[in-house]
Specification:
By secondary structure, the chain is an alpha+beta fold. It has seven helices and eleven strands.
Length: 208
């Protein structure tokens, strides 16, 4: 079995971002990039590192709506829909992110139809993911929720030649925040699934 993280393709090529005057900014770990309620002014694409998009409840709990790694973009729905950002975005680790102003973003889409279609596909897949998560949280037990997430993350691996098992690049806490479960429930469920042979553990890593 092979250990590897899912490979991601850039939404927009770096040369295109540079052509439309995007700026590459550096974020330190835990630095906030976007706050819930901010006016949507920019398109973002991760060049290196990773960020998480989340909503924080009044009691301090988080619900992660997405984790975005190298080549992935975020924040487009608010930018296109012209409404405030509905979530916070913070760097999980030291990261570099392309920042493209809204006027340049829309000009890029108008002048590059293939990239426009690529962006449409990204948004459709993201809507599919959110619909899946909403259905899981409202209807299913912890094991079913986790299995659905693990299958989804595995499906993001290379489309050709997907290995027998992949390392899931998320912590128990992140899985809990994505599935609406308590971290204790995730830990207990993962151990149970390991005993039943539904996944493997390598140290603290989940192999699925």
């Amino acid at each position: 079995m092979t250990n590897f993280l899912p490979k991601r393709r850039k939404v927009f090529p770096v040369k295109t971002l540079e052509q439309y005057h995007a700026k590459l900014i550096t974020l330190r770990k835990d630095q906030m990039l976007v706050q819930e309620g901010d006016k949507a002014l920019d398109f973002f694409q991760v060049e290196d590192g990773s960020v998480k998009m989340f909503i924080a409840s009044q009691d301090g709990q988080e619900f992660i709506q997405g984790i975005f790694g190298k080549g992935e973009s975020f924040g487009e729905p608010a930018l296109i829909g012209k409404f405030p950002y509905p979530s916070n975005v913070v760097a999980i680790e030291k990261s570099k992110v392309w920042k493209l102003p809204s006027d340049s973003f829309f000009q890029l889409l108008k002048e590059n139809f293939e990239l426009h279609l690529k962006m449409d596909l990204v948004l459709c897949n993201r809507l599919k993911y959110k619909s899946m998560v909403l259905a899981e949280i409202s209807s299913y037990d912890p094991e079913h929720r986790l299995l659905t997430l693990l299958r989804y993350f595995k499906s993001k691996s290379v489309k050709t030649g997907i290995p027998d098992a992949v390392i899931i690049p998320y912590t128990r806490q992140q899985l809990a925040d994505m599935s609406g479960l308590r971290v204790e429930t995730v830990i207990r469920t993962v151990k149970k699934m390991e005993k039943e042979g539904k996944l493997q553990l390598e140290g603290h890593k989940i192999k699925f």
